[in-house]
Amino acid sequence: MTNVQIDYSETDTKGRYVATTPEAEGEAELTLSKVTPKLIIADHTFVPDSMRGMGVARLLADRLIADARERGQRIVPLCPFVRAHARKHRDEVEDVIQW
Q: Where does the N-acetyltransferase domain start and stop, copy by copy (predicted)?
């Protein structure tokens, strides 16, 4: 899937990635909570039925990981999808995942 737009918005304590694509209705999301400026919790990932099987959740997780790496943050993978993704790619993400 190449035509996915991912946007990020945040407040003082929360963050939200939203993925949209002209190929499907609705939006997928990955939410996070900010514990400290250097520690965040991946709370929840949701992909609507219209986007299932397109790899959107992985794109959201990869963006979260890339952004955390760039900001010098660690991620606590509370969300089951992010946790499974981090376990599957443990060697690639060990610098940003806080087990």
A: 9-98
